[in-house]
Amino acid sequence: MEVGRSLFEREIRKRELRACAEFPVRFAEHEGVLVPAGRIEHATPKRVAVLFSGGPAAGGHNVLVGLKQVLSQLVGVREGFKGLLAGDFFEIQNLDEIKNTGGFDYLGTSRVKIKERVEETLALCKKNHIDALVIIGGDDSATNAALLAPHLQVISVPKTMDGDLQYGKLLPIPFGFDTATKVYAELVGNILQDTKSSLKYWHFVKLMGRTASHVTLEVALQTKPTIAIIGEEQHRLTDIIETIANAVVERSKAGKNYGVVLVPEGLLEFIPEMNQLIGEIDSMLGRHQGTLAELGPDERKQFITINLEQRGLFNFLPSYIQEMLLADRDAHGNLTVSQVETERLLSDLVAKRVQELAPGTKFNVNHHFFGYEGRCGAPSAFDAMLGYNLGLVAGSLILDGRTGYLASLTSLNEGGKAVAIPLSKMMHEEEREGEKEQVIEKALVKLDSAAYKFFVSRQDVWMRTDRFASPGPRQLWGPATNQLPISVALNQGYSSLNF
Amino acid sequence: MEVGRSLFEREIRKRELRACAEFPVRFAEHEGVLVPAGRIEHATPKRVAVLFSGGPAAGGHNVLVGLKQVLSQLVGVREGFKGLLAGDFFEIQNLDEIKNTGGFDYLGTSRVKIKERVEETLALCKKNHIDALVIIGGDDSATNAALLAPHLQVISVPKTMDGDLQYGKLLPIPFGFDTATKVYAELVGNILQDTKSSLKYWHFVKLMGRTASHVTLEVALQTKPTIAIIGEEQHRLTDIIETIANAVVERSKAGKNYGVVLVPEGLLEFIPEMNQLIGEIDSMLGRHQGTLAELGPDERKQFITINLEQRGLFNFLPSYIQEMLLADRDAHGNLTVSQVETERLLSDLVAKRVQELAPGTKFNVNHHFFGYEGRCGAPSAFDAMLGYNLGLVAGSLILDGRTGYLASLTSLNEGGKAVAIPLSKMMHEEEREGEKEQVIEKALVKLDSAAYKFFVSRQDVWMRTDRFASPGPRQLWGPATNQLPISVALNQGYSSLNF
């Protein structure tokens, strides 16, 4: 029973992966990017290191499988840049065991950054005879890749379950987003089915995804919930509460004392007055650290809040949120947004408002936060295909002698086309911790995008009716296997939801 | 995009269901139960009503599909006994839309019981020309069926996601358990994969399932987590804390500052001293209602706890658990167990103990409660098959003129064999709210069962190593489709895990 772990894992290892071209391919420049220009027949063997950086995402193991297929010598780095700086390398041999499996556990990962340690990183690579480096990670990791690229051959492979690393037609979506959203969408669909069956609960569901609301938008398109909040709309907190409370009252009048509200993890950062409040408190905490350390909880609260411009908002919030806002910050001086129970904050404020609008309205609430259970799922058929092909593209770029490129796959509805984007093209200037820096832009949900506009056109119907969908568990075999993320298909203008 | 809801739902409706015999069948007595004895060729048409009772479970819609196939006139009752008592009936026509879908939303359900309203129920059935009634529900509903059976033709169909309605070889498992445990097992497997990838979290996961720990045992067998607590072991709270804390320290010494602990929803009820404490508080709350209503929170706490035998335990508990224990009870005078955050209670006590055992040990914790997301999932292939066949068996029993039977399916590993158990055989005497009553027994995890013994033989290895399994999303097509619940296969002595 314990051989090969589970039946599912034994079987997925046998699933064939389809390459979108005959790899390894050579590349040629075309309109500012690299596109395939034939097969590489003979390549100089290189010793190539590969590492994961940041949170896990489904499909990462298949990137390794793709790389190993085109590169003769592949060296694994344990625990990301942390392992690289510690010289923790090993030779990668057979990858049959991890083919199509979820997680980053084959190499491990870390959030260590190398911005201030570029020299050291280069020296360590040289010492370990590394000819080239493949960095599998999100926007921060791509920025790291760009820093190293002038000095060492480096290729970046885009991963993120958050979906916040996108670049128009050239980078429709990194690997990991599809699996996470399909895991969450199944659960949300099941809960919607439960509300319609047991007829007595409102569920407030917070979805992982850091700042941007891509995950929430995609899950909304897949499940058609009663309400979904998109952070990028930048509504005021009171307006959000009003919208939900009105829906609760309206549905209750129609005999529907149930529903599902989707809440993006990063919502609070987008609420202008909330943002201002957090900023004001951050600044007070930073400026008066010494004084505050000597105060008791009540004095501390008074000291911080007495001169806040957003004092009204602060007093409007439930006490557990006040406490959280006043708590000490992480090492970077930031509030750990994922720890704010936004789903509970909203439901508490809505409960109060509902009783003002229509006293006696039934409003029984459950809360959920879906996060970790989506990052490490077995890759969907889409992510399995995407990860594998990104590995093949990245390996080909290495053999073709390219550096400072991000491997990508376009035309996903037509079997996929390899492309490589110069990291320099993706960089832009941003202010981070008070200093201007060249970084890869974090992609937010665009309010003029096709996916968002479709959502807006339907949300009223979804709120009034129970026209939800239950997308079910993602399938690796059979007729429901080859589904694209809906938001990606809409934004790329594909005519089909299948790949 | 909104036609047929999701691609998955459109496709599962087309999945064929296999009947385990040529239905409708006649029955004959054999060793105290009914077994098939040939096909019914001509049956008197009957007007048969059907209702769901209690929480939703996956496969219920297929019971209706099975019933409809053998019965000419099927009448749906909306919202369980609540709808029956309100005369809320409708003629069931085509069921293609709900075939293989999750939830109880086609009829709705309720928790209304009819113990004191038998006469009224019978009169309503008569008034609506109901010849027979099919009750789809758990142990309480089967007890209700037994009450009605002498006066009206009644057949009971066993459902429960909790798995606590079992009857040896005759009733291996009701529908709903397999889907719920497969949903939870996927999520737990994903989280295990995440711990091994990000290497820094302990996750405490509470699993729905009411009193019994069947769900937790099944999910443990599927995922092989670091630790799983089985309520029926009846350990003392301090022993449970000691076990987990020792594991945390031992694994930390081996460089593993991560793990997953499974906690059954009903755990607290099984901890003898906790049970005693809850009982003592319940009794104080019941006896001194009037006095307590006039006291402030602190006085109330002192009044209730001053004479408790388990005062030491009470003081050992974190304040939020103390508050919960002192809160007012539900209409039946019981504590709502599912609302106690057992997963947080355990992790808080473990955190304290770990620092005593090995100061400085890293112990970062996340909490989860998986419940509603498992009850209404699309049925697994197993539950789809089971629900459909139970419907065929129940319909056949009606046509064969039987009353007071529970429809069941045995020999699940050999395609399934129909059987009907007299409800009278399953009844036993129990004390409920101070009175002796004849009820269907709630099945707990037996400590001498094959499934539990297998778990015990492996749990030490799972704790020390990372030999977890990621069972993946349940599959409706392909080679990983036909999996039985592991605990059922072990307890029934099947030689294969497939059906």
Give a structural overview.
The structure is a homodimer of 499-residue chains. With 499 residues, chain A is of the alpha/beta class. Chain A has 20 helices and 15 strands. In chain A, the strands form four sheets. In chain A, strands 5-4-3-6-7-12-13 form a seven-stranded mixed beta sheet, with helices on both faces. In chain A, strands 9-10-8-11 form a four-stranded parallel beta sheet, sandwiched between helices. In chain A, a hairpin with a 2-residue loop joins β1 (25-30) and β2 (33-39). In chain A, α2 (60-70) runs parallel beside α17, α6 (177-198) crosses α7 and α8 (237-253) crosses α15 (342-357). The longest helix of chain A is centred in the middle third of the chain and has 22 residues, at 177-198. Chain A is globular and about 75 Å long.
Summed up, what is this model?
Two copies of one chain form a homodimer. Chain A has 499 residues and is of the alpha/beta class. Helix content of chain A is 41%, strand content 17%.
